[in-house]
Design a protein that fits this description.
Layout (H helix, E strand, L loop, with lengths): L7 H12 L6 E4 L2 E4 L2 E2 H4 L5 H9 L6 H13 L8 H11 L4 H9 L9 H15 L5 H16 L15 H15 L6 H17 L7 H11 L4 H26 L20
Antiparallel strand pairs: 1-2, 2-3
Length: 274
């Protein structure tokens, strides 16, 4: 500073610092908080959580129909019981003394490619099929995409079949909501057709019915709503975080110390070298 004035070098440094991070999401100044240009006080009490999720991720606010479908998908994936690895981890972490944030972080960290990534992988497959379908019939596009997927990743197709549910009730309900939205002209139904064609093709290939599961159904919803595959995983994590929090809190109130994945008296199998 010279004679009470900020030097040109200091101004340049300040401008560089302010330009280091750029965002179109939020504008915060003393007494002002705007989300995508909308004052936060206009949003509080007037829109729901699903609306805010959409508003943060997209360039335009959602229609009521889009909000309903997004909220349905978020509700559907909230929890799947204490044997789901992420849920079990949150409960075990609490019994090891972790606070809620530590339990949640531990659980969320395992929501990766195998446990938590199927929705992203399924939507990527659907989008590949959609691309192929621009130049060939849908059934041929499905076969082409499935061949490519199996060659690269193996025979397990994400979004289909379930280790516990012969028919996943969450998928049935979500597809019904997509069908209703299509009938009223709120979505195209393109990804619903793709998802069902994949289910048909898998049945023909394997000789048995392999129904769409929650990951496939949410991939349909997120595809119809125009979300990128990576966001399918992020949105799943937002949803499952509710279940993770609830189980961690329940376990905290139940008590217990250092609980492992199984009762200790059941033991485990020791594989001795011959």
């Amino acid at each position: 500073m010279t004679n009470g004035k900020i030097s040109e070098q200091a101004v340049e440094m300040l401008n560089r610092a302010k330009a280091w991070w750029t965002t179109r999401l939020i504008d915060i100044r003393p007494g002002v908080i705007r989300i995508k240009g909308e004052p936060i006080e206009n949003l509080i009490g007037n829109v729901g959580y699903a609306h805010m999720v959409w508003l943060m991720l997209r360039d335009e606010p959602p229609t009521p129909a889009q909000t309903r479908l997004l909220e349905a998908a978020l509700v559907a994936a909230v929890d799947h019981g204490p044997q789901a690895p992420s849920i079990a981890i949150s409960r075990m972490a609490v019994t090891c003394g972790a606070p809620l944030n530590g339990a949640m972080a531990s659980a969320i960290n395992v929501l990766d490619d195998i446990h938590g990534g199927a929705g992203q992988q399924c939507l990527a497959l659907f989008q590949a099929i959609d691309s192929h379908a621009q130049t060939r019939p849908l059934d041929a596009a499905v076969q082409l995409a499935l061949d490519g997927f199996v060659a690269e990743y193996g025979k397990v197709i994400p979004g289909y079949g379930h280790r516990f549910h012969p028919v996943d009730p969450r998928a049935v309900r979500l597809l019904a909501l997509v069908d209703a939205a299509q009938a009223s002209g709120e979505v195209e139904g393109r990804f619903a057709r793709i998802g069902r064609q994949v289910e048909k093709a898998l049945g023909e290939r394997t000789g048995k019915q392999i129904p769409m599961n929650i990951d496939g159904a949410t991939a349909v919803v997120y595809g119809e709503l125009g979300f990128a595959p990576e966001l399918a995983r992020g949105l799943f994590i937002l949803s499952r975080s509710v279940g993770i929090l609830a189980h961690a809190w329940e376990q905290k109130n139940q008590g217990g110390r250092i609980k492992g994945p199984m009762p200790p008296d059941l033991g485990y199998t020791y594989l001795q070298d011959n």
